Amino acid sequence: MTKIIIRLGLAAILAIGLAGQALAHAQLVSATPADKSTVKSSPSELDLTFTEGLNLKFSGIKVTGPDKAAVKLGEPMLMPSDTVLMVPVSETLGAGTYTVEWHALSTDGHKTNGSYTFTVKP
């Protein structure tokens, strides 16, 4: 019985340790415009909020429009918390669905990436 308790305890410690490592990556928590949202007008910037601080030099986004053409963006910057990546949109977006592809390098060296979409209402 004691061996079973010890094994269960070790398994629990291992599981918690692995979960902590998995959470150490910068994951997208929210975005403005939000994923699958519809906005009434062209956004002037995109704000992506992550679970931890980012390395700006190796983090960024690419936006493509309904015609699959790249959207012209300004220089990305980190807001004071280092967890919000703000990217100016340099052109007016027409009606349609846009795809945001992001990549991030957290300050502790972990890379993540993903994508989401939003729609500009006609």
Sequence-ordered SSE layout with sheet pairings:
Layout: H1 2-22, E1 28-32, E2 37-39, E3 45-50, E4 60-64, E5 77-78, E6 84-88, E7 96-105, E8 111-120
Parallel strand pairs: 2-8
Antiparallel strand pairs: 1-3, 3-6, 4-7, 5-6, 7-8
Family: Belongs to the CopC family.
Signal peptide: 1-24
Main location: periplasm
Your description of this structure?
A hairpin with a 5-residue loop joins strand 7 (96-105) and strand 8. This protein starts with a helix and ends with a strand. A 4-stranded antiparallel beta sheet has the order 1-3-6-5, with no helix packed on it. It has a 4-stranded mixed beta sheet with strand order 2-8-7-4, with no helix packed on it. The model is unreliable at 14-22 (pLDDT under 50). It has a single domain (25-120), classed as Sandwich (Immunoglobulin-like). The protein has one helix at 2-22, and strands at 28-32, 37-39, 45-50, 60-64, 77-78, 84-88, 96-105, 111-120. It contains 1 helix and 8 strands. By secondary structure, the chain is an alpha+beta fold. Its main location: periplasm. InterPro entries: CopC-like (IPR047685), CopC/D (IPR032694), CopC_dom (IPR007348), Cu-Rt/internalin_Ig-like (IPR014755), Ig_E-set (IPR014756). Keywords: Copper, Metal-binding, Periplasm, Signal.
Q: Count up the helices.
A: 1
User: C-alpha Rg, in Å?
Assistant: 19 Å
Number of strands: 8
Beta-strand residue percentage: 35-45%
Enumerate the spans where pLDDT stays under 50 for 5 or more consecutive residues.
14-22
- Helix percent reads 10-25%
The largest β sheet comes out as: 4 strands, antiparallel
CATH class: Mainly Beta
Q: Please name the CATH architecture.
A: Sandwich
Separation, N- and C-terminal Cα atoms: 68 Å
Mean pLDDT, rounded to whole units? 88
Instruction: Find the structural class using helix and strand composition.
Output: alpha+beta
The CATH topology is what? Immunoglobulin-like
Biggest sheet, spatial arrangement of strands:
1-3-6-5
Number of domains: 1
User: Helix-strand pattern, N to C?
Assistant: HEEEEEEEE
Subcellular location: Periplasm
Family: Belongs to the CopC family.
Keywords: Copper, Metal-binding, Periplasm, Signal
Protein name: Copper homeostasis periplasmic binding protein CopC
